């Protein structure tokens, strides 16, 4: 029985080389002939090897993203039909299958592991060795391999077939015949016999005799027919050894070397990173990166150019206008500077919309489809995530770079790839475009640079823009600190200067801090002194009226009786009082006088400013006389004296605070506000209706206060509820737990008592039972003894008989 | 009569409590006892006589009456919080107006107090709640400890009971076994005695007969 040889196995390098050469010779149709060169492979295997691996048109590069997308998409449309899919993608079927499986593994996050069934185990034979790279040749090749190699070499070196050989032989013969004929003709010519060429060409051009399509040059101005070149009179300058030999080798080398050096130098200058890479032990990244896929720019080249052109044109126009020398001319107003990009700082940095990982998604979809249960069970279809079956080619999406810088109002991002600008055609307003704009664009667009207001405001979202500007300005101004009306009076230090000069003679220099303290003290003392000169109302910081009531002055009519002395004195006092009030209102105003309402942070209102002006105006007319300290002292003593007198006269001692309060309350109750007249009067002067009205007004006021307070309180309560709600719920839970526990405790206590009782019972019961049992036993033993006695008696009696 | 019954059950030693009917019988016994039991005298006589009207005020009395009549509680009158104007009939009465204004002032004061309290709560409330919760947690812990102790005590008692009863039980069992042995032994002796007596009687008869023959 002959040994059956099964061909196949791993392809070796020699085999690959032979196969390639053989394909070169025999073409891609004679696989049997090719296989005869490789005695370890069959024709089919050779063909497979060629079409799966060796064909130079096979792409062995890394898979690109588009290819992967396409592969997954097609695999979904035509499952397992790799031969159909492969040419569409441009790879071989085996490559497609392999990469598909790789992608699915990646989608499952499965690493290449030992127990992968696709991996070859030791001892296993590769089922399709055609798609694997060749195995390198061993240094010591087998006998039969060497034989195969030499035979193949011999056969393939013989590039000529039978026909070619015959043709070559014929050619050689003809050449020989031609040479012989030539020789013969030469000899005959030497002998003087001219033989005509026997063979004449019937058709065509005799290239030896004539020049085809020859054009004679036009005759020049001079007749050149007489000129002749004398070959025997050569130009010796051109016949030097140097000229014949060409350049010397050494010189050439020298030049090349110099050039090389220069080049190196240049490279050193330009290519620093390359230098670093070559000098340091720089390692090439292990994994080659795939090609960077960037979205096409949104602004086309043409548009950019246009922008530049416009800018240049405006710049040019400016220059011209300035050269004209007319400053502030009409042209100047029409030209604007667009050089600076408007506040780019305020722009939000755009973000490219996140791109979905289509490949992973698709791979997962396919996984879901393959791991499905039997359809006989019914139920829902396997859910797929945004899988598209719309066409053969997978839908493609590219991330667009959001364009914020050059968001000119009349340009809109158009369809990708359309070269000619993106100007909207027809009357499309930008608002509409915004509405239908592509997703992922930032809603906030660049402020438009339109300083001349050429565009109508409603053409774009300019209304909002202007408001935005206003808002911005307002916000900027709000950041300013509120003005504070506190002024510090700084007394010039010159007053102390001479004394200081005197002290400077001594070597001791006073510490600056001490000096400062001293001046501060002095200032304080001065202020206090000034304060003492002020009115009592200011000193005690009592509330003072906002408006000074001038009505207290008695205005003399023409027919009034002249004032008495007492009345005159009163008038004088009143006059003085009013002046003091004005003075105080100007120089030490109370917060109320400044119009500051407590609780509200507010600037001094308009009204207070007007008031201040009025006070000042009054003081201008009636200047405030400063009173010396002694005068005040005297006045105080006078007052005291007067008080003593009054007290003695009225016959009462020190009044208690309560009586003061009583009097105050009574007086206060007499004050009534008349809302209709907007003034205060005495209560007993007002009518009943007025009083009711006043009360109503007060009630109304109180109501307003109430609503405000209630709102406040409600807000506070709400806040507290949020703040303390957690604690409250926790405490509730705790309380419930505690009560539960107490109940349990009680029950357990009862149980405990019961068991205790039971135990007491049992301790009593045990001896009792024991005793009774013992008694029983005792009785039985006694009885036994009795019975035994009786028995022995009987026995004895019986023995007597027997 | 109740005192005469001596309970001498030893549940850890005795068996048969789980058999059917035993429990019912026991329950029936308890039932019968409760039916028969009459508290003859006031067992609370060592306590002073209660004074049921100690806390009764007018308001509580009225409330109890309302409860007896099963009437719903009056809603809290919110009228004064709305700061009402005087009633329609007294629109021209100065005193009524004064009253309502005073009421409004009182309410304003109340509101101010409320706000004050709320502010105080907002400042100290969280701390106070925390303290309260801490106390509660402590109480809870204490309770749990107590409960644990009680349970332990119960277990101990039961343990003791079991020990005592098993100890006594072994004694009892021994005695019982002894008793049974004695009883059976006595019985056999008695029977043997009877046999002997019978034999003796026979012999006597024979003797008599023989003597008679002689």
From TrEMBL, chain A:
Gene3D superfamilies: Homeodomain-like. SMART domains: SANT. Residues 108-141, 194-278 are annotated as: Disordered. It holds the Pfam family Myb_DNA-bind_6. GO terms for cellular component: spliceosomal complex. One of its GO terms (molecular function) is DNA binding. Residues 1-58, 59-108 form the HTH myb-type domain. The keyword Lipoprotein does not apply. Keywords: Cell cycle, Coiled coil, DNA damage, DNA repair, DNA-binding, mRNA processing, mRNA splicing, Nucleus, Repeat, Spliceosome. The keyword Cytoplasm does not apply. Residues 3-54, 55-104 form the Myb-like domain. Residues 682-709, 770-797 form a coiled coil. One of its GO terms (biological process) is RNA splicing. Belongs to the CEF1 family. This is Uncharacterized protein. It comes from Sinanodonta woodiana (Chinese pond mussel).
TrEMBL record, chain B:
InterPro entries: SPF27 (IPR008409). The keyword Nucleus applies. Residues 133-213 form a coiled coil. It holds the Pfam family BCAS2. It is found in: Nucleus. Keywords: Coiled coil, mRNA processing, mRNA splicing, Nucleus, Spliceosome. GO terms for biological process: mRNA processing; RNA splicing. GO terms for cellular component: spliceosomal complex. Its main location: nucleus. Belongs to the SPF27 family. This is Pre-mRNA-splicing factor SPF27. It comes from Sinanodonta woodiana (Chinese pond mussel).
């Amino acid at each position: 029985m002959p040994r059956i040889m099964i061909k196949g196995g791993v392809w070796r390098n020699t085999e690959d080389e032979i196969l390639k050469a053989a394909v070169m010779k025999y073409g891609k149709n004679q696989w049997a002939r090719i296989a005869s060169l490789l005695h370890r492979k069959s024709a089919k295997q050779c063909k497979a090897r060629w079409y799966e691996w060796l064909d130079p048109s096979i792409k062995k590069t890394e898979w690109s993203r588009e290819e992967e997308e396409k592969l997954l998409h097609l695999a979904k449309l035509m499952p397992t039909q790799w031969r159909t899919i492969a040419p569409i993608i441009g790879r071989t079927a085996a490559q497609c299958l392999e990469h598909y499986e790789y992608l699915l593994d990646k989608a499952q996050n499965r690493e290449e592991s030992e127990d992968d069934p696709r991996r070859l185990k030791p001892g296993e034979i590769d089922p399709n060795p055609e798609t694997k790279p060749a195995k390198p040749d061993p240094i010591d090749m087998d006998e039969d391999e060497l034989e195969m190699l030499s035979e193949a070499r011999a056969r393939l070196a013989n590039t000529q077939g039978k026909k070619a050989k015959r043709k070559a032989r014929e050619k050689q013969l003809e050449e020989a015949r031609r040479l012989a004929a030539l020789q013969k003709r030469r000899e005959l010519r030497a002998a003087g016999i001219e033989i005509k060429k026997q063979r004449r060409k019937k058709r065509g051009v005799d290239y030896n005799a004539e020049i085809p399509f020859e054009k004679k040059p036009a005759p020049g101005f001079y007749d050149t027919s007489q000129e002749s070149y004398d070959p025997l009179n050569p130009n010796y300058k051109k016949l030097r050894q140097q000229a014949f030999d060409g350049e010397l080798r050494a010189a050439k080398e020298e030049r090349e070397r110099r050039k090389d050096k220069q080049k190196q130098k240049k490279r050193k200058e330009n290519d620093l990173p390359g230098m670093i890479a070559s000098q340091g032990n720089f390692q090439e990244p292990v994994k080659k990166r795939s090609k960077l896929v960037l979205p096409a720019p949104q602004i086309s080249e043409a548009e950019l150019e246009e922008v530049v052109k416009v800018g240049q044109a405006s710049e040019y126009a400016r220059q011209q206008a300035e050269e004209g020398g007319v400053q502030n001319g009409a042209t100047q107003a029409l030209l604007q500077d667009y050089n600076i990009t408007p506040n780019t700082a305020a722009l939000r940095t755009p973000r490219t919309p996140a791109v979905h990982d289509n490949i992973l998604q698709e791979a997962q979809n396919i996984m879901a489809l393959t791991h499905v249960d039997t359809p006989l069970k019914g139920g829902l279809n396997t859910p797929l995530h945004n899988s598209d079956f719309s066409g053969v080619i997978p839908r493609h999406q590219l991330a667009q770079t959001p364009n914020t810088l050059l968001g000119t109002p009349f340009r809109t991002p158009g369809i990708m790839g359309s070269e000619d600008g993106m100007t909207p055609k027809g009357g499309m307003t930008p608002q509409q475009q915004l509405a239908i704009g592509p997703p992922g664009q930032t809603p906030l667009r660049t402020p438009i640079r339109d300083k001349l207001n050429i565009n109508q405001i409603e053409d774009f979202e300019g209304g909002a823009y202007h408001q935005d500007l206003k808002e911005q300005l307002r916000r900027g101004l709000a950041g300013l600190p509120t003005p504070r009306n506190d002024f510090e009076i700084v007394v010039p230090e010159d007053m102390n200067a001479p004394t200081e000069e005197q002290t400077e003679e001594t070597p001791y220099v006073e510490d600056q801090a001490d000096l400062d303290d001293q001046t501060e003290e002095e200032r304080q003392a001065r202020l206090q002194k000034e304060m003492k000169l002020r009115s009592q109302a200011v000193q005690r910081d009592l509330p003072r009226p906002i408006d000074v009531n001038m009505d207290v002055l008695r205005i003399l009519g023409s027919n009034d009786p002249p004032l008495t002395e007492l009345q005159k004195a009163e008038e004088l006092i009143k006059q003085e009082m009013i002046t003091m009030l004005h003075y105080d209102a100007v120089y030490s105003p109370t917060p109320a006088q400044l119009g500051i309402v407590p609780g509200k942070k507010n600037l001094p209102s308009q009204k207070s400013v007007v008031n201040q002006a009025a006070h000042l105006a009054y003081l201008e007319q009636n200047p405030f006389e400063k009173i010396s300290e002694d005068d005040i002292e005297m006045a105080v003593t006078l007052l005291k004296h007067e008080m003593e007198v009054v007290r003695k006269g009225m016959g009462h001692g020190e009044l208690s605070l309560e009586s003061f309060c009583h009097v105050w309350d009574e007086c206060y109750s007499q004050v009534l506000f008349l809302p209709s007249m907007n003034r205060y009067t005495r209560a007993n002067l007002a009518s009943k209706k007025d009083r009711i009205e006043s009360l109503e007004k007060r009630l109304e006021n109180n109501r307003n206060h109430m609503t405000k307070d209630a709102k406040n309180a409600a807000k506070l309560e709400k806040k507290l509820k949020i703040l303390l709600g957690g604690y409250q719920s926790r405490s509730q839970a705790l309380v419930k737990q505690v009560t539960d526990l107490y109940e349990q405790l009680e029950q357990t206590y009862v149980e405990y008592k019961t068991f205790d009782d039971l135990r007491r019972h049992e301790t009593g019961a045990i001896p009792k039972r024991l005793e009774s049992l013992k008694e029983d036993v005792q009785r039985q033993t006694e009885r036994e003894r009795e019975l035994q006695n009786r028995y022995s008696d009987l026995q004895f009696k019986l023995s007597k008989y027997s | 009569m109740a005192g005469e019954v001596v309970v001498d059950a030893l549940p850890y030693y005795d068996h048969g409590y789980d058999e059917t009917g035993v429990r019912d019988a026991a329950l029936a016994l308890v039932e019968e006892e409760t039916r028969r039991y009459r508290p003859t005298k006031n067992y609370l006589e060592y306590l002073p006589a209660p004074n049921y009207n100690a806390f009764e005020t007018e308001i509580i009395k009225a409330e109890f009456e309302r409860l007896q009549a099963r009437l719903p509680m009056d809603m809290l009158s919110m009228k004064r919080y709305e700061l009402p104007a005087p009633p329609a009939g007294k629109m021209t009465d100065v005193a009524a107006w004064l009253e309502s204004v005073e009421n409004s002032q009182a309410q304003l004061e109340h509101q101010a107090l409320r706000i004050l309290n709320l502010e105080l709560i907002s400042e100290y409330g969280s701390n106070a709640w925390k303290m309260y919760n801490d106390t509660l947690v402590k109480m809870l812990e204490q309770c749990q400890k107590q409960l644990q102790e009680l349970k332990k005590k119960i277990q101990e008692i039961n343990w003791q009971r079991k020990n005592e009863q098993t100890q006594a039980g072994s004694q009892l069992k021994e005695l019982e076994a002894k008793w049974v042995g004695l009883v059976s032994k006595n019985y056999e002796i008695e029977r043997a005695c009877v046999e002997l007596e019978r034999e003796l009687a026979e012999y006597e008869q024979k003797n008599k007969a023989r003597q008679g023959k002689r």
